[in-house]
């Protein structure tokens, strides 16, 4: 897959995840928050808790399910980047890391969405 197609797939997945979360009562605070040590796709607030969300989107299973590519090192980077976000914004809320796994069909339409809540190392 070309870089352009990969970026489009990621963007479509993040848009689907954002709409899904909003429909469930989450308030999206930031998208694509970056620091030198990592990036968080979506940051949301839900019932007073800050949620750092990693969105993984795929069209096929050549490399496994979308969530299979998220390893401990990625979770650590999200955690560190999340701490930076909390500090920068003076937040002391409880927080967690979620994963939204998205499969698209060949027409870039949603085939499956799975929300893994409060993942840990």
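-> sequence recovered:
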């Amino acid at each position: 897959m070309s870089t352009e197609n990969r970026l489009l797939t990621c963007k479509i997945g993040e848009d689907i995840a954002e709409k899904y979360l909003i429909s469930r009562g989450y308030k999206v605070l930031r998208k694509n928050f970056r620091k030198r040590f990592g990036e968080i796709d979506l940051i949301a607030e839900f019932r007073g808790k800050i949620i750092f969300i990693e969105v993984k989107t795929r069209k096929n299973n050549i490399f496994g399910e979308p969530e299979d590519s998220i390893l401990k090192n990625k979770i650590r980077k999200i955690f560190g980047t999340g701490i930076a976000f909390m500090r920068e914004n003076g937040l002391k809320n409880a927080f967690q890391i979620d994963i939204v796994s998205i499969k698209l069909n060949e027409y870039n339409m949603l085939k499956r969405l799975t929300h893994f809540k409060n993942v840990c190392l």
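The first strand starts at residue 27 and ends at 35.
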